[in-house]
Design brief:
Layout (H helix, E strand, L loop, with lengths): L20 H6 L1 H10 L11 H9 L6 H12 L3 H14 L3 H11 L6 H9 L5 H13 L6 H8 L8 H14 L6 H14 L4 H13 L6 H8 L6 H11 L4 H11 L5 H10 L4 H17 L4 H16 L3 H11 L5 H17 L1 H10 L3 H13 L3 H17 L5 H12 L3
Helix pairs in contact: 2-24, 3-4, 3-5, 5-6, 7-8, 8-10, 9-10, 10-11, 10-12, 11-12, 12-14, 13-14, 14-16, 15-16, 16-17, 16-18, 17-18, 17-19, 18-19, 18-20, 19-20, 20-21, 20-22, 23-24
Length: 417
Amino acid sequence: MRALSVRSIGTRPNPARPLTLAAAALAGVLVLAAHAIAQEPAAPQAVPAAQLQNAIGKLGDLDYATRTDAARTVRRTPGSQAVPALMQAVAEHTDGYVRYRALVLLTGFNDPRTTDAMREALTSPNDRLRAVAYSFFEHNPAPPIVPLLLTALEKEHAEFVRPALVRALAAAAKNLTASAGADLAKVRQALVLDVSRGEDFFRSVVIEALGDYRATYAFDAITAVAKLVGPLQDDAALALGKLGDKRAIQTLAEMQKSAPRAVQPSITAAVCLLGVDCSMQEAYLTEMLSFAGKNQGFQELLRSAAAGLGALAVAGHTEALDTLFAVGVPATDDSTRAPIALAVAAVALRNTALMMPWLEKNTSPEVVALLAEGVEMLDEDLDKERFFAMARRTYWDAPQGASTRTLMQALIGKLDF
């Protein structure tokens, strides 16, 4: 599962939020009920031009409620009205944070003009805009953009920007055909080279992206990292499982004999991803998560077990999602809830097709609260906006009284979008 980025870039103070995850969980029922009273509109609603411009201008307000209400107004405006206003803000607004938020919100309208705005953002001096553009082209690979991404790789070293660029290149390598020739070879060469050079943080990002995009061309490089005891061993083990290359089974079997205990959940998840005794591997991960959640001093093991189960859920294993919620919902200690909430949120953003049917069968406020905690902690603003846009469209399309509409209403209210 992707190495999650918690709130940092693009964040402004949020004094209105609860101070702890436990407090958020305890308040979940009341907050959800309060939001449910404010029923969502049945369709996008046009607003006066001045009101829309005022809302866009408040996207960067220091007050959480103010900027959240502003974003809500923009999201519920028809695309024919919102898109031109957002594009103008991205190009002209004097507040760099407003430009950033406008660019993120623009992605929720699925307008073809968004691609042009993203292409321009690739060369923006505003690092937030560049990060959004890279993330956009991860989800919307475009061969003509690849040379620009390769050029950026040589100079983009910001800790919260380069990861988005790396993932865009990994997605490009998966989507480019053999006819791309030199570009495909350059992308693969650059990514494989970065597996073994640079700071561990950046190497971790590369290894994970290669695993997520099943880059079997990087098998040897990732295997070499997996064999070395160190901070990247768990990333490499999990990536080997994601690659789906059965040659990794021997390496993983050897790692199970010698790797530190905190790495074992990643190895176990990888073995399951390769289709070997999956029920047994899931049982082990469940045992590790439950044990670490009940006993102090095993935080590293807890994080690893939650990440392993999250990776399985992203890959389509519903049982892993069952375990995450079963352990996370009743937990009251932040050190236990946080890693599980992050894993749950990652599943929601990366395998929404698995998460939504699961939530329809498990709609308790406590379940929604755990998901909301994880989403709040994430800094994946473009991925979150994609999730929000899907939820709004699903709500608008669902018949009145349908369980799907009820779920979307609950998510919209609790996640504040």
